[in-house]
Amino acid sequence: MAVNEVDVVVVGGGAAGLSAALVLARARRNILVIDAGSPRNAPAAHMHGFLSRDGFPPAELLTVARAEITGYGGKFVTGTVTDVAPTGTSGFSLSVSDGQPITARRLLVATGLRDELPTIPGLADRWARDVLHCPYCHGYEVRDQRLAVLGSTLEAVKFTQIVRQWSYDVVLFAAPGTLSTSARHQLRARSIGIVEDEVTRIVVENDQLRGVEVGGGRVFARDAVFVPPRFVPNNHLLTTLNCPVDDAGWVVADSTGRTSVAGVWVAGNVVNPRAQVITAAGEGSAAAIAINADLVEEDIRDAVRNLDLKHLV
Asked: Which SUPFAM superfamilies match (predicted)?
């Protein structure tokens, strides 16, 4: 079977896609991983919460994983999928940015998501350094420091209460008139500071975050800033294949990642915005096992049909 005719194409080479590729390669499936080489956690120096790999550089994890998959016969293509279309009942034809056509019996999409941040000067430049989004990923590294949380929604208030677990000095910056009386009361009960003003910029000096500036030029000294971003799934391939999505734009799938479109599975942040690296890897493994089982069922049908045809000759 040539590289352009495979059992499974995995689109996306992060933790979810590589975990799935490893399971499928060990199941002796001919698999191809297509990856653009721009992981979401590229700015992060370390990842946390991954058992036995706590503090491991994300790029190094991907390098090790790719070597493991290659050792079992898995193949990789650097690029993006430019077009995809069903062929038959559950197969697919794909076009890749390097020009080669590929056909696959099954498709796993693990293209992740992108973070949309508030348009505050200085914020994006510090992303994954001292502007953070996940206290479970980064909270321990900024423990007991002067922390800020930006946000005005009820979810942001709850998020601030979680961040409070890592420091006694936490300040919530919210737009004027957006916090309820109940929210203020709960925040003050746990000694969380409240600044109700528009944030105008993130103050950085000597390549280090120094504070948060609000209207009128007031600067509140802070060491790190947490921002609950807006998560946007990279689901163009899925919508191209007419996979149903919910009201928030996330593809609908079962517990194994199977979508309602025959032959299409999903795993990781493209379907689960809260999945950490270890969670995404688990979802990729579960999807791979389901995909292999689905292929086995097809192999059985093909074998029975071929046997019946021989008996007719």
From this structure: FAD/NAD(P)-binding domain
